[in-house]
Protein 1
Amino acid sequence: MYESQYIDPALWEACKAGDKGAYADIYKLYYPRLYNYGCKLTENVVLIEDSIQEIFVLFWMNRERMAAVREFRSYLFVSFRHCLLRLLSQRKQEDLLNEEQYPFALEISTEQQQLAREEQHEQLQALKNAMERLTPRQREAIFFRFYENMEYEEIAGILQISVKATYKLMARAIDVLRDAYHAMPLVPAVMTLATLAVALGSLQLSIAILGTPPVPNI
């Protein structure tokens, strides 16, 4: 989904050493990713932007303590998620951090639907309905795995569940989407891998729906 999933090691070391230009480059790299993720949790762009600003200030203050780039990505999403849900909880006067009451809008976008041919609309609607049947946590796990290309260990850390539970969460979500796919009429002639990938905006998710999800070795 993004051109670069990781920060250049030299840029990372420069930032840790106090280079504000390197810090700005990292901010520019991750801002759209965090903003995109935040928009799936809320439509309140002010809270999204406030959360991004807050966690990047904390990151700058604590940058020297971080040992590696990979640690940073997980840290950033964990911090942003916690901060945004906290602000949403304060606004709604209810606890969204410890209960699965938060929204997560992972769906087939209007732009992606327009890319598909008219005869695919029925199939796309079936996929959209299936996506809406997923729990917020299932949609969130799907987002991190197939749109952010995160490993199961990273997803487990962000969602604060075990790796085994993450595999189960993902497998159940894929089962729902796969059942919806196989229930579609004229699937072989209409919804090929390529068109499914266009509809979902993720080739990896399309392959997972058509194939077999990975089995955890734990």
Note: Residues 110-210 form a domain with the Arc Repressor Mutant, subunit A fold (CATH 1.10.10.10).
Protein 2
Amino acid sequence: MTAGRDWVRYWRDPGRPLEAMAAHFERHVYHRHSHDAYSFGVTEEGAQAFSCRGAAHTSAAGMVMAFNPDDPHDGRAADALGFTYRIVHIGPDLIRALLADVTGGAAALPLFARPVVHDPVLARALRRLHSALLGGADTLRRDEELAAAVAAMVRRSATRGLSAPSPAADADRTAAQVRELLHERMPADITLDELAKGRSRFAVYRDFRARYGMAPSDYLRQLRLRAARALLAAGVPPAEAAGRVGFADQSHLTRWFGRYYGITPAGYARGRASVASPR
């Protein structure tokens, strides 16, 4: 969608009530409306003015917006420069399931009393989730960021919060079992539900991170990169290696290979680092 300098990017989960949008609006004005989902947004640039719950609000750069299901609101640019924002819509049933997973039992739906919150921690959590959704991240990464963002929003901003269960005595065993399953399934994609196997997804994520110092999705990526190194050393071309270890394509492998090892896959295959030519 474009109108003048307005632009929109949209993403929708085919199997769950989960949607995400990034947009820049200078001319577009939202008519008063509501959603059947929770909506969490972050204003990136400019300022968005809107009315909600009988009051006027402004969300400037860095601020978080939180709308409950069926919260009527409108929206427009606060000035001629417009605003850029990202927003995630999460269905109540999915929110309830995620919170039940955190608490280890039935969880009441949260209520957000303030439509605008200034909290950099929440903003970062929502940006990570949004980037995972629109950026084509693996299913496991999307699940992790979704659980983390919802837990952060409820703990830090909701009037009805939640309490995390006390650490389980078998946390190390749980982490080891998850690690074993990641090795078994690599390079295939895997969901947090599959790793949990009926346990709390939040607890599995927490225990694994505490034991191995990284999220399960980071660990899986590391396994893929290690496998790619072995294939490259054996003479397999980078494009083929990328596909065999679970990366989307060669550029995807190259990007992460460089971040982890400071060298391109081709440079590694040649047995020397890629260095800039002297001036």
Note: The chain is about 45% helix and 20% strand.
Protein 3
Amino acid sequence: MKQLYEDLWICTPEANANKIEPELMMHGFLLQHLRGNILISRADNPLDHDAIADSGGIIRHYLTHWHEAGPATRQLQQRFNSALYCHARALGHVSRYAEPDATFTKAEVHCGSFHVVPTPGHTPGSTSYLYASPYGKTYLFVGDTVTLSHHRWMTIRAAESNEHDLHQTLNFYRALRPDVIMMSSTVGHPGWQEVDLRQWLALLGEAEHNPRDLCLSQASNDGG
């Protein structure tokens, strides 16, 4: 686990060893909140679990979309007695691994300052999290809605993606003013990126015009 800012750490990247994207890395983030530590996305490495324990554990674990759920989700829930949160439309998939303690369907503010914002498109239950750190930077956790692949911004489309919803989400993002973008997966790039307003608007435009269709990638990989 690596410290990025005074109150934010990134988990050990998880390599996705497949022929489609051999350099694909998946990321999770530990946020030190005044009310207790919060985990966003995923943390599958047992050494990270020990580091979380050394930092005081976690009180809550938020998933940006159901693709992040896995065996470690239940392990974290049991070890730290932490509350698991996801969008209601991700519940069925997430429950295969762990039973969420609570779901949401609309924008909410948790713990007094942690903004939960449904941002459908990549999946119906995709959710972003916005947090204005008391140390000065505003963090936006975007999941897999936008990502970096070898310094190129793009959106990721899966079987359950909805192009109309994704377009609306990107327009919503344009009204936000984050300082740091936290991504749940990247290709050949770390899981975070500092931005100013000009860079933020430019990367959203680039991502919108560069969709990556995972279904087509899979078909090509299979020879179909």
Note: Confidence is low (pLDDT under 50) at residues 216-224.
Protein 4
Amino acid sequence: MSALLEVEGLRSGYGPVEVLHGVDLTVNAGEIVVLLGSNGAGKSTLNNTLCGLCRRREGTVRFDGQDLTGRHYRDVVRAGLIQVPEGRRVFPNLSVRENLELGSFARARARRAANLEKVLDIFPRLRERLMQLAGTMSGGEQQMLAIGRGLMAEPRLLILDEPSLGLSPLMVEELFGLILRLHGDGLSILLVEQNVAQSLEIGQRAYVLENGMVRHSGACPDLLASDDVRRAYLGV
């Protein structure tokens, strides 16, 4: 497999506080790579640094051979590295349609109408609620909307930050089925999750982040069988 995202020695943080301490990570084309870690491990900081929302201090970020180190977040989006942030962050006072269309503001604007139809085929519930205000939808529906908005930008790599957070068990099952479907369509995915068991079951490789450093990495079946990972995250 060819490397799509290559991260080397990444350090970043906020103000005087360094959160990431030299992170190395690779996502190959066509992979689901899982990023695990407890609250405060640095997962969201890593995502935001990759996407140009948090200033890196050291290290490099390359995407599809292009150096994105220190680039503006608009350049990152235009390259096709798209994040669906933790907490969904839909625009509550805009309609479902307006939220989706905003996803193509910086990338794939010319194919907005065609991509909207593709997203609505994936999420029939959104088609039923096109004119509904996003803030009046359930948590699961808002998560569909957030992912749909990301897909409107025709991502080369989609970062999903805690997509199952706050969802019912039934919605979680539906979500993981959707991730597999997107992967089956050829989309590369960086899945950032605390739902360890299900994430490792659908991913190819995984990294475990602790205190801003990669403590474990490897094939998902190997990490699922690791005593250290099982004790720390599965309670067994």
Note: The first strand starts at residue 3 and ends at 14.
